[in-house]
Structure formats: structure tokens, C-alpha cells
Specification:
289 residues; 36% helix; six-stranded parallel β-sheet; 10 strands
């Protein structure tokens, strides 16, 4: 068993209980892959013909060439479901932090700027009564819509093949929850941003390349949208430099699933997939079709 990066102690222990861990790919019959590892045909070729399964430590599999894996009869598994609620929570957290100017207020105080309470000082917006646009009708998108509704917003959801343009024109918040595919790469480009209300904000907890960050920076600079909150980035871990200067931008370092319980559940689900394939000869429920 080969692990492509550091994992929590509980996950490492679970792996050691069932497998011998190896430092190189050549003798591994299974791989536990972090999202930062690109597994393409060359990677699979280097691993060798004994490789049977790749378990991705995440719900998305855009770091894995699924066609190359199928061609080499390598099963791929991921970790759906267990990160749904934590990622949806972060989407709402980022939205509220942006609308209520929480991060901006924190920076203001840390800069030791003079202030006193005033009725119209640093006013923001709430979610109640807002049209909350959810792009992506999967588990996380549905959970985010439910939480937005609990805050008094009116969810608008569009899935694959839906009317994205109508959502962009109507929504006060556009929250991204679709997978990264060739079709969704730069789904939010200059044209999409132009369709948004000037009072609307963009929130991305999905995948960075869904948003054209240069176009986003231009839209923020011109004031054609009111703000953005990003947990993922087009060239992660790099962040488009211009975004760092905007007060109406909230940035977090890919924290969507970053609760201890969620990350451990994800790891255990990946380990379960590995044991199902390698020790029991079964296809796990979390195999990627």
C-alpha cells in the first residue's frame, strides 16, 4: 500500500492494521491518494500492472484520469457523503462572513484603527429574503440550499443542463457546488459575471478552476459584482494576487471538509474501499462508476 502524503494518525493506524505500507509505487497494489496528487496514465504506468485500486481522499476525482484507470483495470474509489454537511456549513459561513463584513471588521480592528459605535458604521447584509443561487444539484448543493433556507433565504438551484443564465440574473448569492469537468472549467467567466446583479456575491467551495480568477478580479475592480468568497483557487495553492487586495473578498485555504471528524471519516471510508478490494475481492459501494 502506498500513501501519497501525510494522513491523520487514526488513518495511518487503520492502514497499518491491514497493509504493509511502501514508500514507492512499484510494489503497491493499492494507493491512498490525496487530492494534491495527479494520477494520470504516466503515474499509473509507473505504478505497474499489480496496481488494483486507487482510493481518493476526497469526494472529487478531477485529479485522477478515470479513463486511464479503466483502461488499466484499476478501480477508483472516492469519499462521498461524509463531507456533505461540513462543506455546506462552510459555504454558508463564507457567505455570512462576506455579507456581514466579518473578516473586514477583524482586519479593521487588528490594524488598530480608531472607531466608535455608530448606527451606520460597517453595515452589511443578511441572508433573510435573499435569492440564494446554488449551482450544482448534488449532495452538497442540496445541503447548502437547505441551510440557506434555514437562514431565511429563498434557494434557486440549477443542475446539469439547467438554466444557469436565469439563476445568475436572479440570485443575490451564487454558490458553486458542481464538479470540475471540461464543461464546468471557467463556467464562471467574464460573461457569467456580467450577468450577475451588481449587488450579488459569488461563493466557491467546489473547485477553483470553475471560476476564471482574472475575470473575477476584473469584475470586482469594476464593481460589477459586490464581492466574493473563495475556499478553492484556480491555480491552488496560489491565489491570484489582485484578489488579496479587495476588502470585499473572503479567502480560506480549502477548508470545506476541514473538521477533524469529517477528515477522519473520509480517511476511514477510503481505507474501507482499499480493504474491500484487496482483502475481500469486492467492489466497494464508494467505487466511482
Amino acid at each position: 500500500m502506498h500513501v501519497t502524503g501525510p494522513v491523520p494518525g487514526r488513518i495511518a493506524a487503520a492502514l497499518r492494521e491491514s497493509f504493509a505500507l511502501v514508500a514507492t509505487l512499484e510494489s503497491a497494489d493499492g494507493i491512498l491518494a490525496l487530492l494534491t496528487t495527479t494520477i494520470d496514465d504516466d503515474y499509473l504506468a509507473a505504478a505497474g500492472t499489480q496496481l488494483k485500486v486507487v482510493a481518493n481522499y476526497g469526494a472529487g476525482v478531477d485529479n485522477i484520469d478515470l479513463e486511464a484507470a479503466r483502461a488499466r483495470a484499476v478501480l477508483v474509489a472516492n469519499t462521498p457523503d461524509v463531507l456533505t454537511e461540513s462543506t455546506a456549513e462552510l459555504a454558508i459561513t463564507l457567505t455570512l462572513a462576506l455579507l456581514r463584513r466579518v473578516v473586514e471588521g477583524d482586519r479593521f480592528l487588528r490594524a488598530r484603527r480608531a472607531w466608535r459605535f455608530q448606527i451606520e458604521f460597517m453595515l452589511g447584509e443578511g441572508l433573510r429574503g435573499k435569492q440564494f443561487g446554488v449551482v450544482g444539484a448534488g449532495r452538497i448543493g442540496r445541503a447548502t440550499a437547505r441551510l440557506a433556507e434555514a437562514h431565511g433565504a429563498r434557494p434557486l438551484t440549477v443542475g446539469r443542463g439547467g438554466d444557469l443564465e436565469a439563476l445568475l440574473r436572479a440570485a443575490d448569492v451564487v454558490s458553486l457546488h458542481c464538479p470540475l469537468t471540461p464543461e464546468t472549467h471557467h463556467l464562471i467567466d467574464a460573461s457569467a459575471l456580467e450577468r450577475m446583479k451588481p449587488t450579488a456575491v459569488l461563493v466557491n467551495t467546489a473547485r477553483g478552476p470553475i471560476v476564471d480568477e482574472r475575470a473575477l478580479a476584473a469584475a470586482l475592480r469594476s464593481g460589477s459584482i459586490a464581492g466574493a468568497a473563495l475556499d478553492v483557487f484556480e491555480h491552488e495553492p496560489a491565489v491570484t494576487e489582485e484578489l488579496l487586495a479587495f476588502e470585499n473578498v473572503v479567502l480560506t485555504p480549502h477548508l470545506g471538509s476541514a473538521t477533524r471528524a469529517t477528515r477522519e471519516e473520509m480517511g476511514l471510508l477510503a481505507v474501507h474501499a482499499l480493504t474491500e478490494v484487496l482483502l475481500h475481492g469486492r467492489v466497494p459501494a464508494n467505487a466511482v462508476p
